[in-house]
Specification:
Number of strands: 15
Structural class: alpha/beta
Radius of gyration: 27 Å
Shape: globular
Distance between the termini: 95 Å
C-alpha cells in the first residue's frame, strides 16, 4: 500500500466517527434470547495480567472460563485513563467530552445523558448498581436509571473519608439484591470493583501469595469476586440466559514510559483494556482481533436486546463481530487525558488510533505503527510527517466537535470531596485555572517530577494519619515549592498547621488557597471553622457567607452553619442545619454526632437516640455509641437500660473510663 493511499484510508476512517453516529434499527424479537444483562467494570485492570490474554502467571479462572464460553476482544480501547470519564463512555456510548466529564468527582454526568440503566429500566428490567469508589456515586450522575444503587450513603467501617469499598462488600450487596428480584423479571446488574487501584494490597490469601507482584494479587482477588456473583446467578437459574460483560475502565502503567499508575499518559498500558462478552449471541471461544471501543458497549447491548436507541451514539453495535463476523470499516478510537492540564497545568493529551496507526497529540507529537510496535517505543512522527500532521488535525477537529471548542472548567470540589480524593491518592495537584492559548509543558518532560511529587505526597499523608505533624508539614512545604499554584496543597498545609495549633499560619494557607481558586468554597469553610474555634464569631460568619455563595446547599456549608449557630447559642437552628447536612450526605457521621449533642440540649431525646442508633447500626464507633445511648437513657430515668448500654460499651472497649464512671454513679 502506498503512503498516499494509506493516509487517505486513515483520514477516511477518522472522518467516519463524526458522521456515522450509530442508531439501532427498531427490531424487537418476540422473545429476545438475552434475558438479563450483567456488567462488571473493573477499575485499573490491564488485559495482559489476565490468563485468557496470555498471562501465564495469572490466577484468573473465572475470567478465563468466561472467555472460553464467550468472546474475548483482544484490542479494546477505552476513552480516558481515569475512572469517571471512562465509565461515562461505557454507560452512554458517547465520548465523555461531549458532556464535559473530563476528571473524577468534578463535572457530573448530566441528567440529559441517557444511560444504559435508564434504557433498560424503561424496558422493564430491574436495575441494580453496586460500586467500589465514591467517584461513581450518585452525586456524579452514575446512579441514573438504577432503582437500587449501593454507593456511599452509609458510614463505611467508621471512616469519615468513606471513599472506597472492598470488592467483597460490593459483591455481598449485589448478591443480596439479586435475591430480591422476582425471577420473572429481567435484571440489569452493574458491579464495579475498585480493588486493583493503587495501593496494591489484596485481601488474604492473595496478598501473601502475590507478595512479589501485588498488582497481580488484586486482579486475582477481583476474579474471585466476579465468580461469587456468577455463582449466585447460576444458583438462581439466571446465568445461561444472561449477557455477561466484563470490561476495565482503564489499565495501569507499571513504569512504562516513566509513569506509575495512570491518569496522565495515553499509552497502551492504560488505554488497552480487557473486554469479554459471554452469553446468548456471543460466539463461544471466539477472539476478535480488530479494534473495538468501550463506547461501543451501550449500542451493542441495546441492539442485542432489540431495543431502539433514543439518542445518537459515538459508538456502534458489535453484534456482527460477536457472531464471528468482521466489519468493512473499523472506526477509529479517540481518547483524551485532561488530567495533566487540570491537575498540574501541563498540556492535555489526545490520541487517535486507526488503521494500525496511533497518534498522541502533545506539544511533541508521537506517531506509532501500533501493530508493529505495541510497546510504543519508536516515534515515527518526523519520518511520517504528512500522515502525522493529518492525524493531529483530525484529533483536534474531533475534540472540537465534541466540545464546541469550549475549554474544560477548573475543578471546584467540595471540602469533603477533597478529603475523599486524598484517600484515593488523587491529592494535592489541582490547578486553579485552565489557560486557553498556552498548552503548558509536555507531560513527557515532567513525568519524573510527578513521580517525585506523588511519592512525597503519599509520605505526607501517611505522616498526617500517623500524627507526625512536623514531618508532614515539612513535606507539604516541599510540595508547595514544587507546585506553588496547586490550591489544594495550600488547603492541606493549612489543615496541618491547624492541627499543630499554628492558627495564623493555617489562616494564611487557607487565604492562599482561596486566592488561587476563587471558585472553591473549601478554604473559606476551613477558615470559618478555625475562626470559630478561636472565638472570632463575626469573622467566621463572614467566611461562611462567602462559602455559602460559592457552594449553596452543600454538605460542608450546612455543617459549618450548624457549628456557627451552636457558637451563637441557637441550638434549635443548629439542629436544623445539621439535619440539612445529613440529608445531603447521610454517610458522614459528623453532623449526626453534633445533632445528638444539640438535640440532647433541647431535650429532644427521641432525635438524639435516633441518630445514635443510626450510627450504631452502621457500625460507627460502637462502644462510644453504646456510651451515648446509655447517657441518653440515664437522662430520661431509664437506669436499667442505661446500665446495659454502659456494660456493652465496656465489653467492646475494656477500660473505657467514662463507661466505668457512669456505672459507678448508677450504683
Amino acid at each position: 500500500m502506498s503512503r498516499r493511499l494509506r493516509a487517505l484510508l486513515v483520514l477516511g476512517t477518522m472522518s467516519a466517527i463524526a458522521v456515522v453516529m450509530w442508531m439501532t434499527v427498531g427490531r424487537r424479537p418476540a422473545e429476545p434470547p438475552v434475558r438479563h444483562v450483567i456488567l462488571f467494570t473493573l477499575d485499573t485492570t490491564r488485559a495482559d495480567r489476565i490468563g485468557a490474554y496470555g498471562a501465564s502467571a495469572a490466577r484468573t479462572p473465572t475470567l478465563d472460563a468466561l472467555a472460553a464460553r464467550g468472546v474475548r476482544f483482544d484490542d479494546a480501547q477505552t476513552s480516558a485513563p481515569i475512572t469517571g470519564p471512562a465509565h461515562a463512555a461505557i454507560f452512554t456510548g458517547v465520548y465523555p467530552a461531549r458532556y464535559g466529564v473530563r476528571d473524577n468527582a468534578t463535572t457530573p454526568l448530566p441528567e440529559r445523558a441517557t444511560t444504559m440503566a435508564e434504557r433498560l429500566s424503561e424496558a422493564g428490567f430491574a436495575t441494580g448498581g453496586f460500586i467500589g469508589a465514591f467517584v461513581l456515586d450518585r452525586a456524579f450522575g452514575f446512579a441514573q436509571g438504577f432503582a437500587a444503587f449501593s454507593g456511599f450513603d452509609t458510614v463505611d467501617s467508621g471512616s469519615e473519608a468513606n471513599a472506597e469499598r472492598v470488592g467483597a462488600a460490593v459483591v455481598a450487596d449485589a448478591i443480596r439484591w439479586i435475591d430480591t428480584v422476582p425471577r420473572a423479571q429481567p435484571l440489569f446488574l452493574w458491579v464495579h470493583l475498585y480493588d486493583p487501584h493503587a495501593p496494591y494490597s489484596a485481601p488474604a490469601p492473595f496478598g501473601a501469595e502475590f507478595a512479589a507482584n501485588p498488582y497481580d494479587g488484586e486482579v486475582a482477588y477481583v476474579d474471585q469476586q466476579i465468580g461469587r456473583v456468577l455463582d449466585a446467578l447460576r444458583l438462581r437459574g439466571s446465568l445461561e440466559d444472561s449477557l455477561v460483560i466484563v470490561v476495565a475502565d482503564h489499565g495501569e502503567s507499571l513504569g512504562e514510559h516513566g509513569e506509575d499508575e495512570h491518569g496522565v499518559f495515553l499509552y497502551e498500558s492504560v488505554i488497552r483494556v480487557p473486554l469479554i462478552v459471554a452469553g446468548p449471541q456471543a460466539r463461544r471461544g471466539h477472539v476478535v482481533t480488530e479494534q473495538v471501543r468501550t463506547v461501543d458497549l451501550m449500542p451493542t447491548v441495546l441492539d442485542l436486546l432489540g431495543l431502539a436507541a433514543t439518542a445518537e451514539f459515538d459508538g456502534e453495535s458489535l453484534r456482527s463481530v460477536l457472531n464471528g463476523g468482521r466489519r468493512r470499516v473499523v472506526p477509529p478510537a479517540y481518547a483524551e487525558s485532561y488530567y495533566p492540564k487540570l491537575h498540574y497545568g501541563w498540556s492535555e493529551l489526545r490520541a487517535l488510533r486507526a488503521d494500525g496507526w496511533k497518534i498522541i497529540d502533545a506539544p511533541t507529537p508521537e506517531l506509532f505503527a501500533i501493530g508493529k510496535d505495541p510497546g510504543e517505543t519508536t516515534n515515527l512522527f518526523q519520518a511520517q510527517r504528512a500522515l502525522g500532521d493529518r492525524m493531529v488535525a483530525e484529533v483536534v477537529r474531533l475534540e472540537q466537535s465534541f466540545t464546541g471548542g469550549r475549554a474544560p472548567e477548573a475543578a471546584a470540589p467540595s471540602r469533603e470531596t477533597l478529603e475523599r480524593l486524598r484517600s484515593l491518592g488523587y491529592v494535592g495537584t489541582s490547578a486553579p485555572t485552565v489557560t486557553g492559548g498556552d498548552r503548558g509543558p509536555d507531560p513527557k518532560d515532567r513525568i519524573e517530577e510527578r513521580r517525585t511529587f506523588k511519592q512525597l505526597m503519599t509520605e505526607a499523608i501517611d505522616d498526617l494519619r500517623g500524627n507526625r505533624l512536623d514531618d508532614a508539614v515539612r513535606k507539604l512545604r516541599d510540595l508547595v515549592r514544587i507546585n506553588d499554584r496547586a490550591y489544594d496543597l495550600h488547603q492541606l498545609l493549612g489543615e496541618a498547621y491547624q492541627r499543630q495549633g499554628r492558627m495564623r499560619d493555617a489562616l494564611g494557607e487557607f487565604e492562599m488557597a482561596a486566592l488561587l481558586n476563587p471558585a472553591v468554597a473549601a478554604p473559606h469553610l476551613s477558615a470559618a471553622e478555625l475562626l470559630l474555634a478561636s472565638g472570632d464569631i463575626d469573622a467566621a460568619r463572614s467566611r461562611l457567607e462567602t462559602a455559602a455563595t460559592l457552594d449553596p446547599g452543600s454538605f460542608d456549608v450546612a455543617l459549618v452553619t450548624g457549628l456557627l449557630l451552636e457558637a451563637e447559642r441557637r441550638p434549635a437552628e443548629a439542629a436544623d442545619a445539621y439535619a440539612r447536612a445529613i440529608a445531603v450526605n447521610p454517610a458522614n457521621p459528623r453532623p449526626r454526632m453534633r445533632l445528638i449533642g444539640v438535640a440532647s440540649e433541647l431535650k429532644r431525646f427521641d432525635v438524639a437516640e435516633r441518630e445514635a442508633r443510626t450510627l450504631l447500626d452502621r457500625d460507627y464507633r460502637p462502644s462510644r455509641m453504646h456510651l451515648t445511648l446509655g447517657g441518653l437513657a440515664q437522662l430520661q430515668g431509664r437506669t436499667a437500660e442505661a446500665a446495659q448500654h454502659y456494660r456493652e460499651a465496656l465489653r467492646l472497649e475494656p477500660g473505657l473510663a467514662m463507661a466505668e464512671q457512669a456505672l459507678r454513679q448508677l450504683r
